[in-house]
Amino acid sequence: MTLQELYASVGEDYEAAIRVMRMDKLVDKHIRRLPGSGVMERLSAAGETMDPTELFEASHAMKGVCGNLGLANLSAAVSEITEEFRPGKTRKMTDADVTEKLQSISVRYAAVAEGIRSYEASNP
After folding, report:
1. Which of 47, 35, 26, 46 is nearest to 98 (CA)?
2. First to last CA, the chain
3. Domain range summary for the chain, segments of one domain joined by +
4. pLDDT of 69-100, one tens digit each?
């Protein structure tokens, strides 16, 4: 599996990753780190406590990582949480809405992580 095939298999944008990282070697290096980075675990933990500061910080970090890796769909989904908990903004979602969005993000993230693991298996 190539990097292009990985991105296609998870419905994301390889060209966006190349625009940021400039080289396959860097995309490869950083995409492999995503599943072990803890960004999803941190976001999930923040969702369990509904701590607004931690939800903002965790979602903002994940949004940036995903954006830099060309994972625009995942980044956009996480961005909704970032904006919901941005300091100074009034919340519009209920806790139940936030939980539902986080579950959706978790499912999407799991699919991306599984794709990355398949990519790694074919490119040790």
Report:
1. 47
2. 11
3. 3-120
4. 999 999 999 999 999 999 999 999 999 999 99
Q: How far is CA 85 from CA 15, 61, 100, 114, in A?
A: 30, 13, 15, 28
Reported as a pLDDT band with limits 50, 70 and 90, residue 26 is very high
Ramachandran class of 120: left when φ > 0, alpha when ψ lies in -120 to 50, beta otherwise:
alpha
User: What is the secondary structure of 44-109 as a DSSP string?
Assistant: HHHHHHT-HHHHHHHHHHHHHHHHHTT-HHHHHHHHHHHHHT-TTPPP-S-HHHHHHHHHHHHHHH
**Residues 22/68, Cβ–Cβ less than 8 Å:** no
- The topology under which CATH files domain 3-120 is Four Helix Bundle (Hemerythrin (Met), subunit A) (1.20.120)
> Which residues, 6 or more positions from 106, have their beta carbon under 8 angstroms from its beta carbon?
40, 44
Query: Can you state the angle between helices 24-33 and 95-122, rounded to 10 degrees?
Result: 120
